[in-house]
Amino acid sequence: MEFGPHLMLASLEGAVIASVLVLTSMGLSIVFGVMRVVNVAHGEFYMLGAVLAWYVTSLLGGHPAVGFVAALVAAPLLVGAIAASADRVILKHLKYDPDRTIVATIGLLYIIQQTTLMTFGPDARPVAPPFNHRLALPWFEFGDSGFAMYWPWGLSTTSYKLFVIAAAAVVLIALWLLITRTKIGLIMRATQQDSETAQAFGIPVGRVYSMVFGLGAALAALGAVLVVPIQQAHYLMGADPLLLSFIVVIIGGLGSLPGTVVAALLIGMSDGIISVFFSPTLAKIIATFLVAMVLVWRPQGLFGRSVP
Amino acid sequence: MTLNAKSATLHLSVLAALVALFFVLPPYHSGNLARIMVLAIYAMGYNILFGYTGLLSLGHAMFFAAGMYGFGLSVNLGGLPLPLAFLTGMACAAALAAVTGFLALRTSGVAFMIVTLMFAQTAYLVVLYFGTYTRGDEGFVIQSADRMIMGVDLTSEGARYVAALLLFSACFLTLARIIRSRFGRTLVAIRENEERARMLGYDTGAHKLKAMILSGLIAGVAGAAYAMLFGYVGATFATVQYSIFPLLWVLLGGAGTTIGPLLGVFFMFYLIDFSSSLTTAYMLVAGVVLVLLTMFAPQGLMGEMRKRVFAWLP
Amino acid sequence: MNILETKGLTKVYGGITANADIDFALPRGKITALIGPNGAGKSTFVGMVSGRTPATRGQVLFEGRDISTLPAHERIQLGIAYTFQITSIFPRLTVYENVAIAARRLFGKDPALLQTKITRALEKVDIAVHAEQIAGDLSYGHQRLLEIAMGLVQEPRVFILDEPTQGLAEAEVTGFIELIKSLAGDATILLIEHNMTVVMGAADWITVLDQGMVLANGTPEDIGSNAAVQAAYLGKTDA
User: Which distant-in-sequence residues (6+ apart) come within 8 Å of A48 by Cβ?
Assistant: First the structure.
């Protein structure tokens, strides 16, 4: 394949990665923004979403679409409920002390991951996509004979991948409406601004925190359900999304939601593109190091405003 | 007894117990104990930074690995004699800690944790990237023939135990001394109230950097010792898991206590040893212990002892 | 001669000027009180002098030497001690260890001397009986006294006290006035104070700040009869 079509293919792959990454990172970012909690177990909620999707689809059987739709609803709800109860039992007990919650969520990470290993097992398991049409893509060229359109061999995507991109966009818009247009969003924003004052105005801060923690985890799970027909479910699959979401949230400015979206798109796209052209390890080395440097020299993130 | 005499007695009896255990225990357990002592060196290094200075690093595996690879590669590729290779390992860890400290100490709190995590992740990926030399995940073995020091074969059970005990004692006693020194007390002051320490005329930045280098250096000693005594060097030791372990050990044993790290490693080692005979998901135990500790005993075993019974515990 | 001076010291916080071109002199060996209504910029000013708060512009001179670029800990090492407005101690350590941390930088090489100095400082503020208690368990007044002991033990040349008597009982305040009077001479004292009994009873010299600017300078008698100062305290800011 020539460079142009190859780049287009890489961008499409990048867009799929970015779509899922937007959802997981938004989950992490909302939790950090509202609760000031760094949730290290976030990747495991993602993994849990994928594993539950496998359980739901294999339980229902029948046409893949039936199981998939059921998983799309059930997995995020279940994961959200698990996360909310973890918040109730563990984080609330720690009074959301930043250092201790980090250590506790590290513990939570191992608990979820290892419990999955004991029950789901060490194998990677596939989930069938609800639909999966191969779509060949055209490429344009100005040749000797003028403008020409042709269908390069290998330049194609699937209808399911396009669906992932669209679904992520829909969820993102819904989330934006939830935060800006609803009472729940208003309560969340009030708690984020000043939890003590919010409490004084009768907002049940404890319940808001549990809900936010659950919502954050549910977003990760939703991303995982979308990705699981492309990538199989495995008990160790949480590590990469965790690292990438961390990177996104840091680059986007801790707790800034618009920054998170921009950064997720940027990093998802470049991750997709870079890993097609370069050694993935080298790409990861450079990315990880650069992000650490951003935190050292510009802790408010690349898109955040500096606070005097 | 004075405070100093009490803690000296405590430290010496710990060492005496370790000597005695070698003669009492069956080989399987004395082998374990040698490993525990080496890992306890790692935990003690971590304790300097976390327990005494109050800085929570999530990237200490890079210092352990720096000691390990600095030693292993200079034996296998450089052909250096053991003592020189050991020093190389220590130097690598200290240098890496100096650079990391210089950069990461510009941040604090949560940002410090994430920066150290990211640096350690970078270090891990670098080990994988140079797989030609490091042999990546698979790792490499240091041949038994190369593990001789002054005619003593470190692969034998007895020599290994003695070497581990000597290294452990050296670090244990040195650190116990440093903790009681002006430098050590200043670290505690920084942990308790950094702004006040600064406004009492202490250069807190320089102290934190020194603590970081010391902490990294000791972790490097542990890494080099592990490679030397057990003959294996691998990328597993550079993973996040090996950054979490010292945190877990120190939290369990008691952060900011001299014998906490040893106790923490001891209990965790046998807990994991026991649970891995039952299930492959042995890290579940680590997770449960971490959560329970942070929830109910943030001071760890020795910290709770100090709070309830022996206020003088060093 | 003045031990410490500032020239044009200014602090701007996000467009708001907290201190504007403050020229100030601290006469050697005397007790100088810095007074002014709430929000006059007193704490900001001593923060800039001690190096805790970076100045926007201006100079701080100590013994005629420009120390504006020195970090806080180096200024303290020159012999400037500073107590915080909001009590700042090491709450989980013993009272003795609190003072020891303050003293160790200077006398740490000689354990016997260190011990004498610590005990003497504790006795001076009358909390020696609490030496082995955990500092955080002390009453608020005793914590204030502990903080003063932590300053004293450094044998500072300039001792900056930010509202030291806040929260002290009447008897303790009387003791405090005597204490700082006994320190003056060897040490120079800069006192931020709201309690006018302390100011009038202890200070040799008073500087009044209002709205980030020096409003008046003088002896307690001068200041007591100064119309502008009275106006400022009554809230007429255009005086």
Answer: A75, A79, A82, A112, A116, A221, A224
Distance CA A42, CA A222 (A): 12
All structural domains of chain C: 2-233 (3.40.50.300)
Q: B48 is in which domain, residue-wise?
A: 3-239
Tell me, what's the pLDDT at B17? 86
Pick the more confident residue, B151 or A97.
A97
The runs of H, that is alpha helices, within C65-108 are: 72-77, 95-107
How many CA atoms are closer than 13 Å to the CA of B214, on its beta-carbon side? 21
**CA–CA dist B234, B236 (Å, integer):** 5
Domain contains B298: no
In a domain, B52, yes or no: yes
Cβ of C73 within 8 Å of Cβ of B193? The answer is no
pLDDT value of position A77: 95
DSSP type of residue C40: S
Q: How many CB pairs under 8 A join B and C?
A: 54
B271's enclosing H/E stretch is helix B260-276
- What CATH number does the domain located at A3-297 have? 1.10.3470
Of B109, B282, B287, the CB nearest to A107: B287
Q: Encoding tokens for residue A181?
A: 């247009």
pTM (global) more than 0.90 = no
Report CB contact under 8 Å: B185, C101.
yes
Average pLDDT of the segment spanning C197-221: 84
CA distances (Å), origin B81, targets B74, B75, B85, B150, B153? 9, 7, 6, 10, 14
Q: Which of B186, B195, B202 sits opposite C88 (nearest CB)?
A: B195
Nearest CB among B185, B193, B199 relative to C104 is that of B185
How far is it, in rounded angstroms, from Cα C225 to Cα B288? 71
| Euclidean distance between the first and the last CA atom of chain A, given in angstroms as a whole number | 51
* pLDDT interval class at C159 (50, 70, 90): very high
- Give φ, ψ of A122 to 5 degrees: -85, -5
* CA–CA separation, C154 and C114 (whole Å): 11
Domain count of the fold of chain B? 1
**Does B216 or B300 have the greater pLDDT score?**
B216
**Within a domain: B169:** yes
pLDDT-based confidence at residue A301 (cuts at 50, 70, 90): low
Q: Are strands C188-192 and C31-35 parallel, antiparallel or unpaired?
A: parallel
| 3-state helix vs strand vs coil in chain B, percent to 5 | 75, 5, 20
**Could you read off the pLDDT of A63-117 as tens digits, one per residue?**
888 888 899 999 999 999 999 999 999 998 988 887 788 889 989 999 999 999 9
Question: With an 8 Å Cβ cutoff, are B291 and A282 in contact?
Answer: no
In degrees, rounded to 5, the angle at the alpha carbon of residue C12 between the alpha carbons of residues C10 and C15 is 145
* Domain annotation covers residue B179: yes
